[in-house]
Amino acid sequence: xxxxxxxxxxxxxxxxxxxxxxxxxxxxxxxxxxxxxxxxxxxxxxxxxxxxxxxxxxxxxxxxxxxxxxxxxxxxxxxxxxxxxxxxxxxxxxxxxxxxxxxxxxxxxxxxxxxxxxxxxxxxxxxxxxxxxxxxxxxxxxxxxxxxxxxxxxxxxxxxxxxxxxxxxxxxxxxxxxxxxxxxxxxxxxxxxxxxxxxxxxxxxxxxxxxxxxxxxxxxxxxxxxxxxxxxxxxxxxxxxxxxxxxxxxxxxxxxxxxxxxxxxxxxxxxxxxxxxxxxxxxxxxxxxxxxxx
Length: 294
Hints:
By secondary structure, the protein is of the alpha/beta class. It has nine helices and 13 strands. It has helices spanning 11-22, 55-61, 79-98, 131-149, 172-181, 200-212, 232-242, 268-274, 282-293; strands at residues 2-6, 26-31, 41-45, 65-68, 103-109, 119-120, 153-159, 161-163, 194-195, 197-199, 219-224, 230-231, 264-265.
């Protein structure tokens, strides 16, 4: 299968590219810099801010499917950045439709559901709490209509809290590993929060399935998470454990039950439709990640 990917050179994209190559698919990756082609992987110079510069070459490639991951400037919540990404994403989906693409998977976010601390399924109401996630939600509604006009299958992949080697250095686990390697004590800003943590390789496997298998209908949303709400304190304990150290003890939460908590995924839909479920436990994922980073 010929598959076009935006954001394929980023943290999440690299793992998805690796997973798709296992299946022998021919890939075309959008890249802002010149890159040398590899076996089964070709590069198209450009970015989503000016689709007109590369959409003719996209038509020559004739993609059968696509994965749209690109969202420049993360984690910026600025209005101009959000609008730039929203318009770029919509033009990208339009260009795919005009190129004859039959399937597009677009990256959404668990943060579209808001900070509920509760399980969310694909029919749960969206409550984006800032400009970034309002932009993501807007992209879903508008891109789905563009895909419908072009008779292109559209899948919105709501990705929960992703972790793994290659994650930005300031994220919780990479930061802790870096500090402990230096013999320093990490400064934890919010040990009382909780999120649904999903290991990057499990997420990549889910996206590959969504991209390459026939969907149930023309427009579907799928949650990709662990299905569990994990306290930040448990993450901290596991990272320390991998260094043979005891985690610090935190005092009782001064904010009580009002602590910030993300939601967690009901993954029954993707289990039923694709037979997917996470393979690595949180403990296994952190151990693997720490081993790779040390």
